[in-house]
Each structure stands twice: as structure tokens, then as C-alpha cells.
Amino acid sequence: MTPAVKNKSPLTPVLIIPGFMSSALTVEKSPHKSWNGKRIWLNISQIGFQSLRIGGALRENEKFRASQQNNPNGNKSGESSDALHQQYMKEVECKSRWVQHMCLRDDMKSEKDGIEVRPVPGCAGVDYLSSGALTESFTYVFGPVLVLLKSKGYKEGINLDAAPYDWRLSPDMLQKRDKYFTNTMQTITHLYRQSNNTPVIILCHSMGCKTGHFLFNFVRFHLGEDDGQKWLDKYIHSYVPIGAPHIGAPKSVRAVIDGDKMGLDAFLDDDEGLMFGRSLGSSPWLFPLENTLATPISPSVPPSVLRLESSIVLTIPTQTIPMKGFVYRREVMPSKVRLAIHLAKDFVVRTEFYPLSRGKSPTLMLKEEVWCVALPPTIEESLKLYPNICVHLEELGTGKPRKKRRGIYHCDIFWPCRFAFCMMKWILCLPCAIVLKILRLLARGADRGIEVTAGAVGSSRAIGKSRKVNWGKGLIASNKAASSDGGESGGVSSELRFQILPTDREGQGFFFEIPSSQQCVLKVKWRPPPSMKERKPCDKVTHKRTTIHKYYPATPGELLVAEGLNNAVNLLRDSYAADPVDPRGLSSWYPPPIKKVVAIYGINLPTEVSGIYQRKQSVKLSYSTSKNLCVRQLIVLDKDAKLNGLDGYTIESGIIRETKGKAKKSGDGTVPYWSLQHCRTWQGEGVKKCDVKVYEIEGAEHRAILNEAKFHKILLEVIGCV
Q1: What was the pLDDT predicted at 94?
Q2: Distance between CA atoms of 95 and 48, rounded to whole angstroms?
Q3: What is the H or E stretch that residue 434 is in?
Q4: How far apart are CA 610 and CA 141, in angstroms?
């Protein structure tokens, strides 16, 4: 009699939720028909600008073309390629369309007209961002994990599946537009039923951990607390976060403030990275929480630090300046002129070049420009640094401009003497005169060559200067009158008038009159720094060269306000703070309503834990059609900051990184240790009194952990496939 064979227990089903930028995206609808169906994230060769790398042949060819156009009479030893130029223009257009498809609208929620980009469904959307023998090795996401699980008997759609999502969106938009969380509930139910009613393991990575955490609380909100908890108890086996930024990662703040090129540094320029980073509605999900400093392993420096600074807004109103006195007797009239505002010898703010009108009385029409200049915290300290302002009128070129000789029609009283000398010169020394003439022609040609070169590189010379003006007198008086409100009145302003004199004040006309000065108007508004009365300065951070500047902890929201990113501020308020599932509180800080949590992450790699920011020294502002200020980039990393007395931390170009110390651990290269280990605080807490188990893998990098043998061994143990 043959003994009965014991049925093998079914494999515990696994649902994968990928991290930030880890779901493949495809174009479902586009105003460009050829783009429909393209896998836009991430397949550079299919997208069509794979040859547009910085330093590549196409870029170098364009640089050579530009040099030829700026100096057509220059070196002809090489020729640019028209074929490469045509390919360059084609790929630039292609890249522009790619950015157009990837970037969301200004509201950071919706896509642009006629565009629909959606995640690739199932495991195919989370395995490799770019499939192929040459690209899989460096674009893998969960590919190695899928190979591992399938080798143990897992079958896609039966006991293994994935829930990719559009990682550009905030959690409320994931549900509103794509019904992501209700669809994921259906996927979990399907896996449960296909696996003999076995609860499902939720395996998440990076931002996918926050997505999974949000999902658990969404179920309780969607079905009601009691029914939702029953659903979770029935269908969820455990929550396995890998490299989880539970309470945020400072790197995400820098991506919004400074831009994010998504790893495509070889193809995208700074402006494109900035535009993309500021369009993502998911970025605030990764911002460090305001109560980060209350964690058991409190960071030694705040996740964001801001130098306390005031600013002045310089407004150059629309005005017309007569230019006859500045270009008198010029051989060649300047084609364009600009205004330069000198605050110090090495600090100048310059407008755009504006064309001169033609005729006997040329004029310069300046259009309104607005500039913001960073200053020390008080007016008095600002005046010590920049006591005076003067303005110059500048044209392209170097040296002194050539002028026409005075003729009889200018009533030159020395013309008889000049005529007699000229006759003697040609009669007595004809060879010398010819040589002199040739040398003068060569010198004139050299001067014109220098002019062309100076114009190409942007060199300029002053043709008019004003006297220095103490710009702070009126502001100090106004500030004292407004000091009763603590400097919260929005600043004080004054109007300055400059008298600009020609640098060459040679007499003009019949009576050799000295040209008169021309008036230029400049409006100055001083803005006080943000109030930090109830906040202690960060004494661990100081300036390299001066003690004037103080540094204070700043929340991500405060940085967004300082940067003028009102759309991101509104998103934080309307989509995150107002969300009942609370993605930045209940679904981040507090324990999930799950019985079992198994956290796995790498440790002891240099990891960004803070960014030190300052106002950009000067930035041009412009007015949009809605009359609101549109800011380019007001806040930048402070490269002059230094750390004091902090072992185990390094600073480079304003970025602070934690490193492994004798009694201190560091993060996984992306997420700080204090965020990775926050799950420890959940032990025995929450609705289900979480049972938390933590695995730390020495030297495992944030993404590379998915391909680590040590991680694979732990994962098999967790899912019961040892």
C-alpha cells in the first residue's frame, strides 16, 4: 500500500510595490501620433535623443558652428557638419517633446493637453526600466527579485504580481485619476484567492513603502475602520519595506529647490532638470517630516538649514534715455546698450542689451526688469557690505571706441596747421608715411577683430557712469518708522535717481559744449528676513569667512515659500495636509494597521542628511500675464557653509552627509539612518500592536540592495522559501 503524499503548503503570495522612478511609463495618448505606445520611462534609444549626450559629437559640432557664426572671418581650419547639425536639431526637438510628456502642469497634478502617460501594468512595469542585454544590468529594479522568486516556483498572476504606479503624482491623484488604491485592493484579493486563500505579503521599496503604508490606511478609510481592519487582517500577511524613507529623505527637498535630472545628467541641462523636479506632485511625499528631530535617533543637524538673509528688490522701470552725448563722433554706432548696477567692485547686476534707435538723436528704451539681491539680515549690516550704488551704461567691446576726426564742418580751429603738417609729411618722408598708413590700417583691423571677439564672449565697456549714491538713507528712516511691527510689514522702499555722465566728455558742437548728464530711475525695496524669534540658530553650521550670517532650521514648506514655489505650497496644503489618510502623518510617522512588519535596509554608506541653503546672490524676476512674480531660482546650496564639532559628518558644496562612526551608523546612500530605522518605534504600538523585525545589511546601497545576495537570502527566509 502506497503511503499518502502530504500536500505541499502553497507559496505565500507576494505583491510588489516599486519606488520613486521605478515604474515604467508608456504614452497612451499624445498630440504627436508617432509617440503613441512608446515606453517613455525609460528607453532613451526608443525615445530618440540617445546621441544628444553632453560632450558628444552632436554637441561639439554645434559649438563649432556657433564659433563660426560669431566670428565669420576667423579660423577656417575646420568645417562643421550640416548632417550632424540636422541630426542635432531633430534630437533637440525629440528631447523637448520628451520633457513635455514627462512634466506635469504647474498645478503639479494634471498632465498637459492631449497627453496621457500611464504605468506599464504588472511585473513588466517593475522589472527593468530599459530591457535589453546591454541595459538590464544598470536599469534593473525588481528584475533580480522576480528571477529569484520565479526560480522558487512563483508564477506571475497566480501568487506573484506587481502594482506599478505613476510616481509623478501625489497619493490623492493616484486614486482620483487612476483608481490606484482600489485597483490594488482588487489585485490583492485576486492573489489571495488564487493562492488557496493565503494572505499576501506586501513587498515595497523606497517610496513604494510610503505607498504601501498609505494603502493600509486607505483601506480603513475606504471601507470604514472596522470593516477595513477586518479586510487587512484577512488579506495581508505582512508588510516588508525595503530601504524605506519612513519619515522622509532630505535629498527630495534638494530635487525641488535645485532640480532633478533623474540620472540623465548626460542628456538634460540644468533648466530641464529644474523644470522636471518642480513639476512632480510626489516630491512632498518624500520631504522630511517637521517632527523629524523628535525621533529616537535624532539627527545632529536639521534636514534643512537656511541662512538668515534679507533682500532688496531692484526695479528698473520702463524709461527712455537720450544717447546722443554718449555716442558723439563715433566711427561705428553701438547696436545695443545695457544698464549695469554696481553694488560693489566685484558685484554687478546687468540688464539685457537693448537696441539703440537710429537717427541724429539716438535713444535707449529700457524695459522694466526686476532683480532680487541677497543681503545680510539688517539694513545696517547690508550698508556695511554694500554702502553705495552706481549705474553704468555699457556696450559690447573692449578698450576705447574709435572716433571720427574733427573736420572743418566742426569748426576745427587747428585745421590750417594740420594741413601744413600733412603736406610736409608726404613730401619729406613718403616711405615712412606709407609704412605708417599700413600700420594704422593693420591696427584698425586688429581693433575690429578684438571688437568681434569681445562681442562673442560678452565683454563690455562703459560709455556712461553715474556718481555713487547711498541707497540706504531713505530705507533706514522708513524702517525705523515701521519697526513697531517687528519687521513683518513686508519691507520698505525708496526711489533713487542717478545722473549718468558720458565717460568721454569731449566738447560737442560749435562751442565745444560739455554733454549734459542723463537721468536714470531705480526703485529699491528692502525685504526683511523671515522671523526666527521662537527658533534657536543651528550652532553646528557657520560661515567660512564671516560671523554676520546665522543659520536656522527650516521646514520644507518654509523653503518652498522662500523660493516662491506657491504651487508646491498649495499642493502641500490641499493634497497632503487636507488628505484624510494623511500621507505625511498617519501614513508615515505612525505604525501601519498591520500585525507584522519586516524592515530590510542597507547601512553605513555616506548618505545625504541635510542641505544648507542661501538666497542666490542675485536673480532676475519677471512678471507673468497674471502679474504674479515668476521666480527662476532664488534659493541655492550654500557652498560657503562649514560644520563645527560634528564627528561622523562631512560637508561638500552645502550638502551634509553622515558617515559610519565608532558608535554611529549611517544610511544606505539615499535615505538617512534616522529615517530607515524609524519603524523600530512601531514595536508593540498601533492598532495591531505591530511586531517589527529589522534586518540591516552592511554596505548595501539603496537600489543595489535589490540585487544583493544577502538581501535575497533574507527575503527567502521572510516569505518562507528557505
Answers
A1: 77
A2: 8
A3: helix 430-457
A4: 26
